[in-house]
Amino acid sequence: MEKLFYEDTHILDFEAVVTDCQAVNDSFLIVLNRTAFFPEEGGQPADTGTLNGLAVRDVSIRKDIIYHHMDTPLEVGCKVTGHVDWDRRFDFMQQHSGEHIISGLLHKHYGFTNVGFHLGLAEVTLDFDGNIGMDALREIEAEANNIVWQNLSVKAYFPDRDSLQAMEYRSKIEIEGAVRIVEIPDVDVCACCAPHVKKTGEIGLIKITGVQSHRGGVRINILCGQRALKDYSIKQDSVNALSALLSAKPELVVEAVKKLQEDGLKQKETLNTLAGQLLQLQVASLPEPSVCPNPILFVELSNPIAIRNTVNELTGKYPGYCGIFNGNDASGYSFIIGSSTEDCRTLASRLREAFGAKGGGTPPMIQGNVQTTKEKLIAFLSNQHHPSNGWFALRL
Ligand SMILES: [Zn+2]
Questions:
Q1: Which of 36, 67, 201, 246 is disulfide-compatible with 256, CB 3.0–4.6 A?
Q2: What are the chain's domains?
Q3: What is the Cα–Cα distance from 26 to 39, expressed in whole angstroms?
Q4: Looking at the predicted structure, is the pLDDT value of residue 40 above 60?
Q5: pLDDT at position 103
Q6: How far is the CA of 386 from the centre of ligand 1 (A)?
Q7: For residues 337-353, average pLDDT
Q8: What angle do CA 203, 199, 158 make, to 5 degrees?
Q9: Taking all residues of the chain, what is their mean pLDDT, rounded to a whole number?
Q10: How many Å lie between the centroid of ligand 1 and the Cα of residue 44?
């Protein structure tokens, strides 16, 4: 079988003869005497396209025979015209050739080995056995793009056994059959079976978009060619929208967001102070312990630390249950209830039974949250008899 993608990776239209057609499940596996369709191999996904205008959905290889997966059978001996989907193939070649350049440079400068490569429809990841940060990767990225702009020729060939033995190249493993070498002169030499761009200029742009620790080394995300351009457009739209919202120049949006966050924190502090003061006023207006042994307060937007301190303060003064419900009917209430004499867990289990309240705690203090209305909570708490103190007194 003639592999046209090895003769020229830009052959998209070709003529061939059907040599085999096998029915497998719901599809037909077509074999041709020659093909420009690259099967899924070496980390690069399979091509798609058409044979006689009919869709080739997938392409696979087994024992060096390439199978074109189709919905319709083709007669053995008949001539076919094939067409490979160029957008898909070119996109994969841009990403894969870009990967070789980055891997080659990391090998050359740091001695790293590429130990994992994923080329998906949306994501390209490269795994290396060494650690490197984004600052150093920016230098690798700059050098990689220089190689793109130099428009170097990408060579692919099958060296004979002796030459291969003497060669230095990445992915050097003992394999059966001929080894195909993909070489970008002075940049990278690597064993690879996939189709690549003819000239590095076709890659257009190589952008490193992320790096994270991975199995003792790093995982790097890259985007090449049209994917990098699409990513730039998306990010530019985001930055422009932020720039308009923040009334800041695009290069100053980060500063503007930091200032917003600082302002937000200051406002939150002010709000917390005011909420604490409001809580103190509510506490000051509570009746005496003899009249109201179990004070329950309802507040909204109050400061959690002030709430906890106030409950502690109340339990020192009032003999029964002292509680604060913080929130509103729409989003529910968080609560803290304390007592210097009673086991608050009893009340927690009653709130759980009545409203499905979540939370718990220790005998002197419980906390949790409940999704119900203030009216229902008041009705419920007012009906909770207390063995020694009678009714709950509610401050509304
Ligand atoms: Zn490769």
A1: 246
A2: 2-84 (2.40.30.130), 90-237 (3.30.980.10), 290-395 (3.10.310.40)
A3: 20
A4: yes
A5: 98
A6: 77
A7: 92
A8: 115
A9: 93
A10: 8
